[in-house]
C-alpha cells in the first residue's frame, strides 16, 4: 500500500525533472492531497498513507521515504523537543536546506491553501520566518500558530551535531509567493502569481510569465456578504489527462497552453447568489477531476463535485470465428495395451530462498560514552545504503530518529533518557525496507558503589566485605528481518 501510493506521487514528477523540481512536485502533492490530523493519532508512515492525514511526523517520514528510495536524494528528519515539532532537511544540488511540509499545509484542508513559505530555507531563514508573514500569505483568514522554529537549537540533535543548512540561494525565490500547488504540462510549470494571474514559472530565472490575466479579477466573497471579500485567492491549477484546468469562485476552465485561451467547461448554478458559491480549488480524487466545494472555509472541503470522470480504456472487441463443419470420423476400436510400470522418480526438494541482505550494521560502544555505527557490505553492489539510527526509552518509546546516506562509520551519542539504540540499513537500490539488518544495543547500567569495610572494634568479630556487583555487559539482540515497530512519543506539530 505504501509503495502504491508513493508510485502515484512519483508518477506526477517529469522523468527529466531536476532535483529542485522533484522536491517541489513531491512537496506540492503531499501538501495538497494530505491533511493535518486534528486527532493527533497518525504519526507513522502506514497510517499516514492509509488515511491521507497525519501530524508532523507523518509528513516528514513520507517526504523522506520518497526522496531516499525513489530519487536517491539525501534527506533526513529534524526532530525538536524544544519546538515539539519535526520537519525535513533535504540536499538539493549539493547543499542542505530546511523544508517544513506541516507548516506549508495549513488548516483547513484545501488544495488552494498549500503554501511554500517554508520551502528550502537556511537555518537562519527558518528561525526568522515570523507568524505574521505566514498569516499574510493566507490572507489573514485565521490565526496562525506562533513561530514554532524560534526555540530550535540548530547545533544539537539529541546531544550531537546536526546537518547545518547555511545556503540561502532560495531566500528571494518567487516560489515563496505561490499558494496552491504548481502543475507541469507541455514542458512548463504553471501556477498563479502574487497578482493571481495564471503564469508560467521559470525556477532557473526566478520569473513569472503571465499567460492569462483575467483570473486577477476573481474574488471570493465572505459567505452571504456581497460587499466583503477575502484578500486571498483560491484558484488552483491541475494537470489532468494531458490538459491544464483551473477554477474561479463558481466555474471551471480548460486552458489551452498553445493558444493561451481559457474555455469554460463547468458552472455551479445550484445557488445563484455568488456570495454563497464556493469552489475553493481543484484536485484529482479517485482518478476524477473534482472541484472542492465548501460554504465554511474553516470546515475545509464539504464535498467534491466531479467535473471530468477518469477516462476508461477502450476494450478490444473479441472476434468470433465461424466454426467449420467437419464430418465425424468413424471410430476405430483401440486394442487394449498393458502399459509397463514407470518407475517413480524421487522429487527434487527445492529450498526456500532466504532473504538477501546487502548490508549489515554494527554498533560499537566507545570509552567516551558514544557509539560508533559501521556498515558491512554483504553483496557486490554500487548502491548507497541509508542508515537509520533510532533511540528508545525504557518503555520502548521512540525518542529520536536519524537517517543518513552511509559513506563512513558514524559516531553518535545517546540521549539521556535513551535505554536502547537500534541501527538498521536499507539498501535503496534493490532491497525493500522489510529486508534490513538490525542490531539492538542495550545501554550499560552503572555499577553500584562498593560498601566500605567497617572498622573492627573490640571483639575481633568481623563483618565480611560486601561483594561488588559486576557491571552488566551490553547485550546484542539477534538480527531480525523485520523492521522494528516504534511507538511514537507525544505529538509533534
TrEMBL record:
Residues 324-349, 446-493 are annotated as: Disordered. Residues 15-100 form the Transglutaminase-like domain. InterPro entries: CAP/Cytokinesis_protein, Papain-like_cys_pep_sf, Transglutaminase-like. GO terms for cellular component: cytoplasm. Residues 327-349 have a biased composition (Polar residues). Gene3D superfamilies: 3.10.620.30. It comes from the Bacteria. Pfam families: Transglut_core. PANTHER family: CYTOKINESIS PROTEIN 3. This is Transglutaminase-like domain-containing protein. It comes from Hominilimicola fabiformis.
